[in-house]
Amino acid sequence: MGVTMKKILLLFFVFYAPFLAAQPVSEIGPYIEGYNGPKLEEVWLLRIGPRSENTFLVQIAGVDHEWDNTIVKCEKKGGEGLSAVYSVMYNNAPHVLITQKSYTELELHLPAERTTIPLKYSKELSLEGNKEAFLADYLAAQQRAK
How many CA atoms are closer than 13 Å to the CA of 92, on its beta-carbon side? Predict the structure, then answer.
């Protein structure tokens, strides 16, 4: 393990471990799914909690929107493939944030936007993802919001 990786792990445990201990999550999914849009858009999905609860963290980046670089908690409804949607609470009402178009294609519906953004699965983005750091970032943002 290189010196840089050791520093990253040390920083993770020093700064984020207290957040993980404060808000336990029973489990997280085995991997992060990464998707690219036609411009600079990037979206990552990570399942949290038991698989049967269908709860996901979604991070959106590269968009000219208030949710740029924000992680939100979504509920997945429907089955696999064309019938699945990921919904988030927005202005005290459910909002469909993502529609699954196929196993490798999603459609992003940002709140208060008229157009949708097509997304395609990216193996490279998925491999870049660090699920523990992703969860820690979400929990840290939740602590700051309190």
Answer: 0
pLDDT in tens, 31-88: 999 999 999 999 999 999 998 899 999 999 999 999 999 999 999 998 765 779 999 9
Cα(28)–Cα(134) distance, integer angstroms: 11
43 to 119, 125, 127, 134, 144: CA distances (angstroms): 8, 9, 13, 12, 22
Positive or negative: CA dihedral 37, 43, 44, 48:
negative
The pair of three-digit structure tokens given for residue 46, joined into one six-digit string: 């990570």
Domain ranges of the chain: 3-145
Q: At what angle do helices 131-145 and 3-15 cross, to 10 degrees?
A: 30
pTM of the complete model? 0.80
- Calpha distance 109→23 (Å, rounded): 29
Q: Which residues of 13-34 are buried (b: 16+ CB within 10 A; e: fewer)?
A: eeebeebbeeeeeeebbeebbb
- Secondary structure class of 29 (helix, strand, coil): coil
Residue 42 and residue 125 in contact, taking contact as beta carbons nearer than 8 Å: yes
